[in-house]
UniProtKB/TrEMBL annotation:
Residues 30-49 bind DNA. Keywords: DNA-binding. PROSITE patterns: HTH_TETR_2. It comes from the Bacteria. Gene3D superfamilies: Tetracycline Repressor, domain 2. It comes from Brevibacterium aurantiacum. GO terms for molecular function: DNA-binding transcription factor activity; transcription cis-regulatory region binding. Residues 7-67 form the HTH tetR-type domain. Signal peptide: none annotated. This is TetR family transcriptional regulator.
Length: 235
């Protein structure tokens, strides 16, 4: 078997396993069924993965590789909160398009354990919330903000996979709710700080209203006003 053919067989086994998992999320699957789907014998599967757990771990790793490849292909908006919004939508889309991979990546739970491959996308998320915190855009710490986003994003995606269909209104509603909670805009009112947060996040969510450059300037200016109010300057 040539190297190219070997890689193709391995990939087809991974895809077959993912398809079987997607067909019955949360249930066990048969190694023989995986082999039958690809048209190979059991020794071939053992050659590539060693055992069932090896196959499962390889499917998880491949799923995260696919997920990170899709994320790296997307462009940043230049605004961390807007990038969180875009990242949420990309996460849900990936789960709905790849339910077999996703249910293993985020739905197969073992207490106290998370796959090593989860660390990279989690760090990307924390880097965005860290930037938002540095800009004074959060009312919670960046790690807590990242945890809020990840927990709700996974929950919504798994729910939609179980439903077997997209629900843009549900996803957007939960997304905006958690973003409002971590940025403080859920409490916006007459208070100057909360009003400032509300203006900033409204502009960041809709950069087409003012334009990209003007939106960035508004965020800077309102942020400075908030810092001045917080330090007591101008009183």
């Amino acid at each position: 078997m040539t190297e190219a053919a070997s890689l193709d067989t391995r990939t087809r086994l991974l895809n077959a396993a993912a398809d079987l998992i997607a067909a019955t999320p949360g249930e066990d699957f048969s190694l023989r069924a995986v082999c039958d789907a690809v048209g190979v014998k059991m020794p071939t599967l053992y050659h590539f993965f060693g055992n069932k757990q090896g196959l499962i771990e390889a499917v998880i790793e491949r799923g995260f590789d696919m997920y990170l490849s899709a994320k790296s292909a997307s462009e940043s908006s230049g605004d961390p909160i807007q990038d969180l919004r875009m990242g949420w939508d990309a996460h849900v889309s990936f789960g709905l398009e790849n339910p077999g991979f996703y249910t293993l990546m985020y739905g197969k739970v073992r207490p106290g354990y998370s796959p090593e491959a989860q660390s990279k996308p989690s760090e990307i998320l924390r880097s965005l919330t860290r930037r938002a915190e540095a800009q004074g855009r959060l009312v919670v710490g960046y790690e807590q903000a990242a945890a809020h986003i990840l927990a709700t994003n996974i929950g919504v995606t798994l729910r939609l996979i179980i439903q077997g269909r997209a629900d843009p209104d549900l996803s957007a509603g939960v997304r905006e709710g958690v973003l409002a909670a971590i940025t403080g805009t859920a409490q916006a009112g007459d208070d100057g700080q909360h009003l400032g947060h509300s203006v900033i996040e409204r502009a960041a969510a809709h950069p087409e209203i003012l334009g990209t450059t003007e939106t960035a300037l508004l965020i800077q200016w309102v942020g400075r006003l908030g810092e001045s109010e917080g330090s007591g300057q101008g009183q």
